[in-house]
Design a protein that fits this description.
With about 190 residues, this protein is mainly alpha-helical. The protein is built from six helices and no strands.
Length: about 190
């Protein structure tokens, strides 16, 4: 019931994140030639260039996985069964792990970066990277909600046997106790 709107929401956030990621990458690529020249003369600059590329790549990869997964779940829920399949149960934790790893990778790299005066595109790239981290956080929460709702809906439709037996035994016990109270009330 709630899976379809959440899956559609994740798809929309993922599409928006793809756009932000593209803008951040293109803004940072404007300064890549200068960075490559500096990397030839400085090991620190080479390391920074490598880290910039990997953080942007990890974000783009996690967002692409989120987009593809959310589209697959949206189509499955819209045209398939109301009960989540095994692969639908696996996609939320996989996405949470990928998004969480990307978020932490980005957080550790970009939190210490200061804006550079007179370099607007680079500063805009830093700002977009911050926005991407926020979007990754939202995506992680949304995938957690989708996963929880999937497990709850599956469990409510198909409870594990031990819980079903305990539930049935409790109902039988309540009926016996209730019928016993009625019969004892008749005889007193």
């Amino acid at each position: 019931m709630f899976r379809l709107p959440i899956a559609i929401g994740i798809t929309a956030i993922s599409i928006y994140s793809v756009q932000k990621s593209y803008i951040a990458i293109t803004n940072l690529q404007k300064y890549e030639e200068r960075s490559e020249r500096a990397a030839k003369h400085s090991e620190t600059a080479a390391h920074e260039l490598h880290k910039t590329r990997t953080t942007q790549g990890s974000s783009a990869g996690a967002i692409a996985l989120s987009l593809l997964s959310s589209i697959a779940i949206t189509l499955s829920v819209a045209f398939g069964s109301s009960t989540p399949t095994a692969w639908e149960h696996m996609l939320p934790p996989v996405n949470i792990l990928a998004i969480g790893a990307s978020f932490m990778h980005n957080q550790n790299f970009w939190k210490a970066k200061a804006k550079v005066p007179f370099v607007g595109g680079f500063n805009e790239g830093i700002e977009k990277s911050k926005e991407i981290r926020q979007l990754l956080f939202v995506l992680g929460i949304a995938w957690g909600a989708l996963g929880a709702i999937g497990w709850i809906s599956n469990w409510s439709q198909h409870p594990p046997p031990r819980y079903q037996d305990a539930f049935n035994m409790q109902i039988v016990h309540m009926r016996v106790r209730h019928s016993h109270k009625r019969t004892s009330a008749v005889y007193t």
